[in-house]
Write a structure and sequence with these properties.
Oligomer: single chain
Shape: globular
Structural class: mainly alpha
Distance between the termini: 57 Å
Number of helices: 26
Strand content: under 5%
Order of helices and strands: HHHHHHHHHHHHHHHHHHHHHHHHHH
Length: 512
């Protein structure tokens, strides 16, 4: 019965109607019903964007309303809404993630309008800021490609210089996204996705079985065994006190948002994001700054929370590894030990058939992307179990980043085993999912994996002059390199540089 929850449902229904190509009047009716949950219908006009304090769900619905007006033919009214949204996002101190969701879409639609009006400089300013926002957290999604294509069109019409490399880069990304999805352009509308959705009933059942605990043992002191049985079968909603008690006995955080860090201020979480971004840059100065932020946050993170215990261990290990203070072997040993806090690792693949917490996913991803052959053998069965969890499209969309990470790691595993057909199969699955994503697409990793598949199939390492004899295969590596340089993905940049030095005895600059 909460207005925000009802607005979320209205937004989902509006999206279903859009995909079903329902009449615009019906789409508007649903969107307005959602907005009027919290906004007085008599005050509803484009001025509310500038003068009213609006929450995220209202902004999503307003943006959707403007898009329907435009598609219906009322372009002037739509432009007023787009301008109001852009002005708001440029001056409001809203979280970067919110602006990444909402600003680029409004900017793309408004830039198209300016383009039609021959206002090229205004259009380019919007496109540049939108693309920069998407690059901030390496989001290169469908909208990123569309913004790139629009920028090229604007520059051509305005008579500006466009480099051949810039055009090739955008065209290649467009082909990759559209190659397996004819309707990829249908999936650039911003959506609100709750990435922490999970069934608590299933989680309790999965973790109890994984740990080998009997119902009576887990229920003792929290609830009676019959109640726990009904909870695990999904026949009863878990009360807050019972949920907290059961999760605590299972060694899990009872907080809904278990990722990152738990402190009393939102600014600490923003510092956490800054630390993570600095860590990804692979530069001494950035890593030193990230370490200082880590130490400051450590003082504020109460060890009573499991999330904070995992924060302490995970980031100490990762930062020290990036700073070259510990070896890859030591990093992986400590991450496996951290996983053992919440998952009985000795039970192997049974452990990985269910839902994983944020730091469990991060640790598995860190190990799987960069490990030796013997460790990959250990990981493959675990990754396969996690992959099975994401059979449904809903699961894949809710946990886009994790699904993509698991599939990419499986591709690497099959490549190490020499199973090129399976690697190629999973690559196509991964590629087919990209147009539905709004984050974590890992363009550079995906493209470099494509190169590695071709490399292994053709046996390039065995040839004397592979760069000249198989130029087509190296186009994928060049595309991956171009993306890393464009989106400043220092981690992948470092990986590609090391790879070419180790296997081809040349600098990755060749790829330029």
């Amino acid at each position: 019965n909460a207005p925000l929850h009802r607005q979320f449902l209205y937004l989902m229904k509006a999206e279903l109607l859009r995909r079903q190509k329902a009449p615009f009047s019906k789409q508007k009716e649903i969107i307005l019903s959602g907005l009027f949950e919290t906004i007085d219908r008599h005050e509803f006009s484009s001025k509310i964007v500038e003068h009213n304090r609006l929450h995220l769900m209202e902004l999503f619905l307003i943006e959707r309303y403007a898009a329907v007006l435009e598609e219906e033919g009322d372009k002037q009214s739509a432009v007023l809404w787009y301008k109001g949204l852009i002005k708001r996002f440029e001056h409001e101190r809203r979280d970067i993630a919110d602006r990444q969701k909402l600003y680029p879409f409004a900017a793309y639609r408004l830039a198209n309008y300016y383009f039609e009006q021959m206002q090229f400089d205004e259009a380019l300013a919007l496109v540049h800021k939108a693309r920069k926002l998407l690059e901030y957290s390496l989001i290169s999604n469908t909208l990123f490609v569309m913004l790139g294509q629009l920028e090229i069109d604007i520059k051509k019409k305005a008579g500006y210089f466009i480099s051949e490399k810039e055009q090739t880069y955008i065209c290649c990304l467009g082909e990759v996204v559209g190659q397996h999805n004819e309707k990829w352009r249908e999936n650039y509308y911003p959506m609100y996705l709750e990435s922490y959705l999970c069934c608590v009933n299933d989680l309790i059942r999965e973790r109890r079985i994984v740990r080998g605990i009997k119902r009576e043992e887990l229920a003792d002191g929290v609830c009676d065994a019959r109640t726990l049985e009904r909870i695990e079968k999904g026949q009863a909603r878990v009360q807050k006190r019972v949920k907290q008690g059961l999760l605590k006995k299972l060694g899990l955080s009872e907080l809904k948002y278990d990722g990152g860090i738990v402190t009393n201020t939102y600014d600490d979480y923003k510092q956490y994001e800054k630390m993570a971004n600095l860590c990804a840059q692979y530069e001494k100065e950035s890593l030193d700054e990230a370490w200082l932020i880590y130490q400051e946050l450590l003082q504020k993170a109460s060890p009573q929370y499991l999330t904070n215990q995992q924060f302490r261990e995970y980031w100490e290990v990762v930062l020290k590894f990036r700073k070259k203070e510990i070896s890859q072997k030591e990093r992986n040993r400590r991450l496996w030990a951290m996983l053992d806090w919440t998952l009985p690792i000795k039970r192997e693949n049974k452990v990985f058939s269910g839902w994983l917490t944020a730091y469990e996913k991060m640790a598995i991803g860190e190990i799987a992307w960069d490990c030796e052959e013997d460790e990959m053998k250990k990981l493959m069965p675990l990754l396969k179990e996690q992959y099975k969890r994401y059979k449904g499209m809903a699961e894949q969309v809710i946990e886009t980043g994790t699904y993509g990470q698991v599939v990419c790691c499986l591709i690497r595993g099959y490549l190490k085993q020499g199973n090129f057909q399976r690697a190629e199969k999973y690559f196509k699955l991964r590629l087919a999912q990209t147009c539905f994503e709004d984050r974590g697409m890992w363009w550079s990793r995906l493209l470099f994996l494509r190169f590695q598949i071709e490399e292994k199939k053709r046996g390039l390492w065995e040839k004397e002059n592979p760069l000249e004899s198989d130029a087509d295969a190296f186009q994928w590596a060049k595309m991956a390199w171009a993306v890393t340089k464009s989106t400043h993905e220092k981690v992948i940049c470092h990986f590609i540089e090391t790879y070419f030095q180790r296997h081809y005895f040349i600098s990755a600059e060749y790829l330029d």
